Structure prediction request, 576 residues.
Amino acid sequence: MNTPRKLGETIVLDSFAEAFPMAAARLVITADSVRWAETAARVMTGYATSVIGCDLEAGAIERLEPDATPDGRPGVSVLAFAFSRGALEKALVNRVGQCVMTCPTTAVYNGLPLGDQPINVGGRLRYFGDGYQISKRLHGRRYWRIPVMDGEFTCEECFGTTRGVAGGNLLLLGSDRAALLAAAEAAVFAARLVPGVLLPFPGGVARSGSKVGSKYRSLRASTNTAYAPTLRGLVPSELPEGVDCVYEIVIDGLTLEAVERATALGLRAAAQPGVAYLSAGNYGGRLGPYHIRLHDVLNRFPE
Amino acid sequence: MSLRLIWRDATRLPVDGGRLRPDGLADLAPAEAAAVRLPVGNGEVSLGDLFAVSGLDAPPGTLRIEGDLRGVARVGQGMGSGHLIVSGNLGSDVGSEMTGGRIDVYGNVGPWAAAEMRGGLIHVHGHAGDRLGSARPGSRLGMRDGIVLVDGDAGACVGQSMRRGLIAVGGAIGPAAGHAMIAGSLFVFGSAGMHPGLGMRRGTLLFGTGIDPALLLPTFVPSGHDRPPFLAVYLRELAALGFKPAGRRTPRLRRYNGDLSIGGQGEILVAVE
Prediction:
């Protein structure tokens, strides 16, 4: 039974987000101008909203000043999450190779401590150099210089990975779709203030929340029937009376603490007129080991 | 435990200083260290006969040597850890074959410094002699890893048969720099002698303040201009290591490929601005 707590007029249900571990990496993309670095990052992080259907979840493009990049050029950082280090490596090799290496003037570097479980990205892309690639190793870090048509593409060989946390989420419930969407945007803005956090869906907001499994055996996930207003009466519903619209904000992070902090910030920002309830999606504790309780994070991360 | 050795200038005979390295020596009490035997000429003497030995208030593993030791060879040879600080000149083979740790020399070093070095850092705040980071006669590979910084000038055949690692020379460099280089990076920020890169197979020779193209062999072909991003990574690292001549800004470079006389794919990068 949910024990409500109020933020303004919005009721925060005593629910929890059920998050799970994912392999995470941080890339630093530089270019002669920040515009080209951002272009590469945007293309590289396209079609990367959910590992349900994409090879990784990626985004959180953040501008970096030249002093904060390895080669002193303007750049951006990008976060990427996948189910395993192997999957992360495969996806990054493909995406860096097709989306960053192809982008004029870019270079890409590891943005996390190398640690003891790095993945190999540049070392796989180097073969594009057809034998003319050049290796440079400095302080145990190897850089590959691959000749391309505007000079050379520099890619660090190994990228550090960390055990990130994915699947943190917020559900915004209300009846006025416009007001709900505005609140969701505010929550996204607030949550993104936390470093090391990725909100992978379009604009940070998902409207097609999913449940595990489907009546169709080939599908791993299908629409979240319990939160689809139009299915009320046909299936067991989690929606209180008067709720006609739900938006979900999914939060991945490099650490559990980052996801929890972003959740708290998102909750407070989302508590606006037109948002009747704030909740979170979970699978009864069966999906992931991290249970991010909404009331708990509000207490632990006060305004 | 750390030690301080002050050269007594007690001999003109050549001294084999191969035992003058922090790993092993710096852990000893001053009296124990003074009893260590060093080859001198065709005999041996106690270290205490050549140096005044005392403790040193410094981080553990530090060995400090003071005096004009240009007759002492192989100081720091093969060292694997610790910090060796030398105030004064040293003879040949400083830090040759070292695998780790750091050597700072506030003076000049003789030939064969860092020969066949495998790791660690050597910073010569003065000048270096010939064959810095080179292969020994009969050996296939020169320097294999690590970093060597020379604030001043360096002699001939620097980085000969170098396989990996970085040598940066702030001043002028002698002829045949990077001779038969296999890989690695040799950066020079002063003038150069004749025929840099002679017989190089791979690797990078950078002349960060430019050189006269007439010094290059005709077997190096120009291949355009560039400002490669990797170089900025290196220049920043050099600046962080306290190597001032490099600066932090990547110059525009003209690239030459070679040595084509042996089918090499090395590169000579020459600053053009």
Summary: Chain A has two domains: 5-19+163-300, 23-162. Residues 85-100 of chain A form the longest helix (16 residues). The mean pLDDT of chain A is 96.
